[in-house]
Amino acid sequence: MPSPMKSLPSPPTPISIVRAWSSCFTQVAARFTDLPITVVLDNARYQRNHFVMAEAERLGITLLGLPTYSPNLNLIEWLWKFVKSECLHGRYYATFAPFKQAIIDCLQDPEGRHKAKLATLLTLKFRLFDAAA
Asked: Which residues make Cβ contacts (< 8 Å) with residue 49, sequence separation at least 6?
């Protein structure tokens, strides 16, 4: 019987990440030719890669990195916290399949039972904090 680990996809390589960003930037630049484009990044190392930054510059795209340790400014962090509270907190999944399905079900229902909660959670009203004295 094959090991379950063999069925997992390989992690992306640096080259595949650069190609993915290049493709994304090219599509965005082609679609919004008459507008300034700023892409907000969470400062992962691969996003600060020389090739990624050069491609954005070539296409006239401004890259804006979020400050380090600022999950309050990153909408995906808010969404992940919501998903964990809705379908993972206090629940046990005996195998990976129902765990994964619970997450998929939660994310595929943004207009249904989660609509009101997500409408107040995923806004551009960021939580800002005063600088420490």
From this structure: 14, 17, 18, 21
H or E stretch at 51: helix 50-58
Structure-token match 């995906």, residue found: 76
Beta strand 61-65 with 37-41 is parallel
The rounded distance, in Å, linking the Cα atoms of 122 and 80 is 11
pTM of the predicted model as reported, rounded to 2 decimal places: 0.54
Q: Smallest Cα–Cα separation from 17: which of 47, 39, 37, 50?
A: 47
Residue 127, domain member (yes or no): no
Please report, rounded to a whole number, the percentage of residues in the chain having pLDDT higher than 70. 81
Number of domain units in the chain: 2
